[in-house]
Amino acid sequence: MCGRFALFSPLERLANRVGASAPENTLRPRYNVAPGTWIAAIHQPSEDAAPIVDEMWWGYRPKWAKGSGNQPINARVETVATNAYFKSAFAKHRCLIPADGWYEWVKNSKPKQPYFICRKDREPLFFAGIFTERDDGSLGCAIVTEPGRGSAAEVHDRMPLILDDDSLEHWLAPDITDHETIKQMVRHIDADLIEYWPVSTAVNKPAEGQGDELINPA
């Protein structure tokens, strides 16, 4: 799964990677992004429009659920195209969620021991996401996850679906709606690019801080 991540790279740099304009108000660096908060996401409004950086609520609940449906933060890649709750968004409303890394916890560790997982070269990541209009008119999103790969699987059996550079444009393209076509055109990054290390248990409580010390090796 992916239940916490960090984003501290400048959004202008990330937006340029996919031909999107940077937002006027630069978001502050966040080292402990938690569900149920506003996060930066990139989506393409229409086939003729350029991608844009938008704020989305990290919690996916379609407008048609009328405020009573579940509000998942993740969607499994194995079922996102067929699950009734997600399939419309997968076909028509895909987004990228930029991050510099994410946190996972080893199961059954006491106290819960967090690990920070990122690229070995410290390059930013783009998580595959889906989004929907919520009942209040805002946008809400979920991060697509896949089975853990490479060293990330040593920490948790699930991880975000991290797209390689050649897949970013295809993932955003609103005119590509067929499941099999998306599957053929989209690739995840090489698992050998990923590494991890243990960090402070202060990560376990987002209210305790958002400083860069959270990603330092414990």
TrEMBL record:
Pfam families: SRAP (PF02586). Keywords: Covalent protein-DNA linkage, DNA damage, DNA-binding, Hydrolase, Lyase, Protease. GO terms for biological process: protein-DNA covalent cross-linking repair; proteolysis. The keyword Transmembrane helix does not apply. The keyword Lyase applies. Its EC number is 3.4.-.-. One of its GO terms (molecular function) is peptidase activity. Signal peptide: none annotated. Belongs to the SOS response-associated peptidase family. This is Abasic site processing protein. It comes from Vreelandella nanhaiensis.
